[in-house]
Amino acid sequence: MSNSIEMFSNRLKKNSKHLSRWLRKENIHCYRLYDADIPEYALAIDVYEGKQKWVHVQEYQAPKTIDPEKASHRLHEATETLIDLLNIAPKQCFIKTRRQQKGKSQYEKLGDQQFFHEVIENENRLWVNFEDYLDTGLFLDHRTTRCLLSTMSQGKRFLNLFAYTGSATVHAASGGALSTTTVDMSKTYLDWAKRNMSLNQFNSPAHQYIQANCIEWLENQSSQYDLIFLDPPSFSTSKRMKSTFDVQRDHVGLIKNTVKLLDNNGVLIFSNNLRHFKMDHQAFHNLKIDDISKQTLPKDFERNPRIHNCWRIRPI
């Protein structure tokens, strides 16, 4: 075994030991085990547990200065080491290369296997897909945020914008939300959200699903909500959109239109994943904005504290 792969193996063991007690205490079944801890192995490794254990490996695209053959060899070495350490079959390990994503490319299909696997988060059951998309359908860095929404949702009218696969809606419903409204432009993800809700027996008419461009939808709404989750993409473009969306450029208008739907005592949880995002506080003189990024950062993502930004926003 080379020195570098031995270092990688030792780091995996160290991370596993470091997280094990916390995972048991918090009853966490889906988590990040490794995130490019060693430069030679630029991988993000996530573990998902359901009826069995699956591992989702994302290789960060190597610089052009790195010999492709050497990079391929390292990935093969790392995969074999990972499979051996976690004692899983090769078919339980899924490997992808993560290139810089823009707009809708992160949501484009990589395949059409339609193999969904049931996993557990916060006592909720959720469907994930390891083969057809770059992402699995469950953003693990928002685990704590979803749990927060669950604790806040009792008796509330909940709105989930840019809902993706609706995992936040599931958490709100399980927390006792009076009603939920899930909005996303993609029929594929909206159907996925319905399946996630149905998996948890949330099938009543109190749970609504709307296929729409959230930005345009907000401009024509008057319904009131007690709790809203707003987690837009950093950048987006689509044939169904009149123009592009840039969260840095457009967040002021987006937040103002969203806050209009809040009841007097309502709360907006706003998040995004733009690393260098700057909140324009001066534009919101009538809002109380609390940065809760640190408190919504899970232990397994502490190495990457800029993975998301998160705020609690209330009308004054």
Structure report:
Mean pLDDT is 93; it is low at 102-107. Strand 2 (43-49) and strand 3 form a beta hairpin. The protein is α/β, with parallel strands linked by helices and 316 residues long. Helices cover 29% and strands 27% of the residues.
Fold blueprint:
Elements (H helix, E strand, L loop, with lengths): L2 H24 L3 E6 L7 E7 L3 E8 L7 H19 L6 E6 L18 E5 L2 E5 L14 H10 L4 E5 L5 H8 L4 E6 L2 H13 L7 E5 L2 H5 L6 E6 L4 E2 L8 E2 H13 L2 E11 L14 E5 L17 E7 L1
Parallel strand pairs: 3-4, 7-8, 7-10, 8-9, 10-13
Antiparallel strand pairs: 1-2, 2-3, 5-6, 11-12, 13-15, 14-15
Helix pairs in contact: 1-2, 3-4
How much is the radius of gyration in Å?
Answer: 20 Å
Helix percentage: 25-40%
Q: What name does the CATH topology of the largest domain carry?
A: Rossmann fold
Q: Domains counted in the coordinates: how many?
A: 2
What is the strand arrangement across the widest sheet? 9-8-7-10-13-15-14
Structural class: alpha/beta
Strand content: 25-35%
Summarize the structure.
The protein has 316 residues and is an alpha/beta fold. The chain contains 7 helices and 15 strands. The protein has helices at 3-26, 68-86, 143-152, 167-174, 187-199, 214-218, 247-259, and strands at 30-35, 43-49, 53-60, 93-98, 117-121, 124-128, 157-161, 179-184, 207-211, 225-230, 235-236, 245-246, 262-272, 287-291, 309-315.
